[in-house]
Amino acid sequence: MTTGLLLERVTLRHGDGEDETVALDDVSLHVEPGEIVAVVGPSGAGKSSLLAVAGGLTVPDAGRVVVDGVDLAGPERVRARIRRTRIGYVFQSNNLLPALTAVDQVRLPLTFGRIENPRDPVELLAEVGMEHKSGRRPHQLSGGERQRVGVARALVTRPGVLLVDEPTSALDRRRSHEVLALLAQETHEHHMATVVVTHDHDVLRHCDRVFEMIDGRLTEERPAMA
Amino acid sequence: MFLTLRELAFARGRFALMGAVVALIAVLMVLLSGLSVGLVNDGVSGLQKLPVTSLAFERGVPTDSAFSRSVVDSAAVARWAERDGVTDAAPLGNTLVNAKSDRGTEIDLALFGVQPGSFVDPDPAQGARLGSAPHEIVVSATAIDAGLRLGDTVTLDRIGTELTVVGVLDGQHTFGHVDVGYVPLRTWQEIRAGAGPGDPVPAHAYDEITAVALRTAPGTDLAAGDEAAGTASMTLEESFGASPGYTAETATLGMIQVFLYAISALVVGAFFTVLVIQRKPEIAVLRAMGAATGYVLRDSLLQSAVLLVVSTVVGVAAGVAAGAGLSATPMPFALDLGAVGVAALLLVALGMVGAAVAVLRVTRVDPLTALGGNR
């Protein structure tokens, strides 16, 4: 069984006929459990499409995606279950729900359905350094604090795969490093396969490998900067 | 429930505003229901309290004006009385008159002419039943509210017939928004003929009645009775439509109520459409994290249900309180808890239909949008 995240010769197209664009062009990627990889590239290169396909939000036109040993080919109902139980998403800032306090944001994924052996939301919040603000709502938190809560929310179901979308886009340099360090630490300690899509080259030193995406192709692989 | 209650508490201002609109609709609904019941009572409570199952009118008379136009030969009473299944048959007269009491109270009356001692001769709560004296009248309690008193002499306009109030019935007995007064059939026939004191009375006047009041066993063949007596019978409920203005009033109020329900469904639907559009980014995040469509639908519908039930209860309570005040005024208003309950359930149910149509949009929210920009 393939563990971690495997994308095998994945192609994703948008539009029809002359308007057709290739968002992912024969992309292959294997991220091992306990490994954190970064995908960098210019806007429109296909980074979001990569996350969408890896997270089962979109079905590719060709190729296959395997998450923690489970093939993502299947109807939305099945993919939603896999997202709920095996995949953690960290979205860009402001994707917390305004009505929920920090601790309720972390509890939220556990209300979607039965989760085997979840992590304790209160302990998890403490682990990301947010226990003192567990009763605050998103508008009462700074950008870095919101991102930490978002990380805790993604981890509470003990996902096998963690997909992170521009985690530092709204953060200053110091907080960017804090968030990436936290992601790297959680990845290594809890043996997740983590993919971080980012524009921020400054944080790449926290990643084990770095991929560059241009025009839908993972064209270049280079070791992370020390 | 986890998300529902927290969102309701967090956006309480927004939900309170929506709830206030629903509550106001509920108040209006209670007031309309009260007005509707009040108008029905005002129009036909005198008929509702008759101990009859059917009324046999003149054959061929228009249904919507049977009480004012029907003239039945009193011999029809005997023909009806001998029919199988007919427990009681008695003559009934009906005429609207204007009158004035000896203490200066001007009053309109619906005179019901009955044979004293017959099954339609009422038993008053105060005073005495109609007796052998010709010029007696037993009136509705609402006539007492209007200023009549037991023992008063009431003089009819134009013909000058004087009637003494000998009895008062319990509760409201009205017909066509006018207080009912029961008089002996013979007196009623003279009044209907326009004969005042000392005036000659045409001989045929004593042979004419408005209808035959019937009390029949279930399953009695009324058509055969009509054939034998030369009448056209209606059940008591059907005869309400023959009361002046009854059909037009109930149809108008019914239409207003139907529009109110439709408006409430549209208003609630519009609220939730806006709410779902505003929440699209959140819903996309929920679905991207793996929340099933059913979870998101349940959350939205539960919000609608809580909002509708709470605001309807508040609105009904406010409406009932306002209605209690209106009941004390001359306005025809009466609260029927059954009718209010049905109306409240309809408001919630139709509001849920409106909300359901709106929240079905959540199934079209693409979880992909949670990822934001196009890279």
Automatic annotation (TrEMBL), chain A:
Matches recorded under CDD domains: ABC_MJ0796_LolCDE_FtsE (cd03255)
Keywords: ATP-binding, Hydrolase, Nucleotide-binding, Transport
Domain called ABC transporter: residue spans: 5-226
Listed GO CC annotations: plasma membrane
Highest taxon of the lineage: Bacteria
Transport found in the keyword field: yes
PROSITE patterns linked: ABC_TRANSPORTER_1 (PS00211), ABC_TRANSPORTER_2 (PS50893)
Pfam families: ABC_tran (PF00005)
GO molecular function: ATP binding; ATP hydrolysis activity; transmembrane transporter activity
EC number(s) reported in the record: 3.6.3.28
Enzyme class: hydrolase
Name of the molecule in the record: Phosphonate-transporting ATPase
Organism per entry: Pseudonocardia dioxanivorans (strain ATCC 55486 / DSM 44775 / JCM 13855 / CB1190)
TrEMBL record, chain B:
Keywords: Cell membrane, Membrane, Transmembrane, Transmembrane helix, Transport
Stretches assigned to the ABC3 transporter permease C-terminal domain: 256-367
Membrane topology note: Multi-pass membrane protein
Record's GO cellular component terms: plasma membrane
Pfam families: FtsX
Record field: transmembrane: 15-40, 258-277, 305-326, 338-360
Entry superkingdom: Bacteria
UniProt keyword Transmembrane helix, yes or no: yes
Cellular localisation: Cell membrane
Annotated protein name in UniProt: ABC3 transporter permease C-terminal domain-containing protein
Annotated organism of origin: Pseudonocardia dioxanivorans (strain ATCC 55486 / DSM 44775 / JCM 13855 / CB1190)
Taxonomic lineage of the native organism: Bacteria, Bacillati, Actinomycetota, Actinomycetes, Pseudonocardiales
